[in-house]
Request: fold
Amino acid sequence: MRRWLVFAIVVGILFGLFGGRSARAVDRNIAGSAQLDLHVVPKLGDDDEKSDPNYHENRQIPLTGFTTEASLKLVTDITDHFSVSAKLCFGCHGFELPLAHVDYRVADELNFRAGRFSPSFGAFNLRHDPANHRLSDKPLPYDMGRMLRMREWNLGVLPSPFPDNGIEVSGTHWFGLVAQLDWAAYAVNGFRGDSNGTDLDFRASRSRDAYYSDNNALPTLGARVALTVKLDSENDATVGASAMHGTFDPEDRLHYSIFGADLSLRLDKTTIRAEWLARRQEFGTADPRIFRYAVPSTGGDFFVKHGAYFEVEQSLTKRIDVIGRVDGLFRIGNVVLDSDLSRRSSIFRVTAGASYLVERGLRIKASGEYWHFSDPDDEGNHGAIGVHLALAASF
Amino acid sequence: MKRVLTLLLVLVAGCGGAAAEFDPAPLPPDLRADYRVFARRCSKCHGLERPLQSGIDDDQYWAIYVARMRRMPGSGINEENAVPILRFLRWYAGELRHKRARSL
Reply:
């Protein structure tokens, strides 16, 4: 069955590229982006180190690294109702195909999508491409690997983008000229994990090594609804809610549920965005000895990870935008014995940044961030600072 | 790090002579309001370079393109907005066709 689905998608893409009605070049649209980001996190010395006369010489730089994200997207409108999309990305995981799907639109209110795509969840996911956000990194709830202590935290709540194979039905409806209602519902393979896993295994989720199709029998189901209201001819507000539920272990015993709520306001040259996500994550308790805290007989088989961000983006001139963001994660629940987290752990980050438009499609992004962790690292530090400097291009 | 910053400052100072994303000065006066609607609505989810550098110079395809964008979640582009957006993009496509014809 899956082979036929892949075959149908490939045929659709080839048909879109080389065949179809009149085959005019204008029916295809190519867009792309590339971002190179330098992330520097100097070591914060503790008081003992600072009293050392050789403090500056001894000071180390534990993290300095470039990351590149590049993508190329092709959308082909075969008819007014039928389109094919494909996107190729290069990032930390090498080359990926996050988009390869067909869309068939019956009406504005009813669109069918099948193939590989990022399911509709939250507001940030719509603009996850680095060309579409002014800071060079993602908010913590959606972080995909550039957060500090990413291994200890196993990333954020829901890494973005999170391409998966499946189907989605969606639509949009305008109530007069004032309000736009968007909705989507989908069934996808979902995330993966071990039989007695203690969290989602994001590496296994994006890998085909262990499971070519999926590791379990049940699909993950989800939905999103959002309402956009025009406040006047130029300003608008959007409020949305999202949910996703599925199993991640091969036996379909362990569940995860992700919820989200978002609000964005566009007021003249100011854009305000706020978003909250929470994941209720079950884990296997067959061997309670692997946990740091006693596992109660009921209700002790899950943790909840919250994530939220609030950001204000202000356009100062046609070229310069400034951005302020506060974001964080909060995890409640049991941890494995060797975890660096505790029963209640949190991260809080404050970021201030600016973006300069060099010319159309080319931006320089710079930001500074302060991190605070509820749990100390090996040297007893709770804080860290970081600097991002990036060049982003898009077309 | 200081060297990188200095280099960037020099780069920034050396660039930026051209108009930011689009210079509306050559626009006919009756299209300036249309451009404003385009710039406002089409910068909500992405930069203006996406449509302006797409290379589309076909009016019919712009109609399909804008209709697709109008259906994007949270676009805020209603049917009333689509009219001035398309008017501006058709003018822009005409300019693009002229430029291509001159370069032949």
